[in-house]
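INFO batch 0412 | record 1 of 1 | parsing
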Amino acid sequence: QVQLVESGGALVQPGGSLRLSCAASGFAFSRYSMAWFRQAPGKEREWVAAISPEFDVTEYPESTKGRFTVSRNNAKNTVYLQMDSLRPEDTAVYYCNGYTPFSNWGQGTQVTVSS
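INFO prediction complete | emitting tokens
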């Protein structure tokens, strides 16, 4: 069974940084493109970063390009999201999943950007 456990969220001031982690199990992690998503209150879930299974090819929407960096460690079945220059509009619950999401979602981790 697919399990995704996100961690690392916190309250941070605008301009600050955070590093999120996602531990994955129950599937062949090294064969899957992975992605980070977020959902703010009252808004649809949106994709914020993606990474290929090998060679670390990454992709970002315009809203996070240049500020967020996704990486992975296939030996640890873990994907990371380094978030820099955080803005209040980055406030959301952050989730990881396959680039084509599995039906199972983790509990997410709350990121709040506020002074």
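INFO post-check: The mean pLDDT is 97.
INFO record closed
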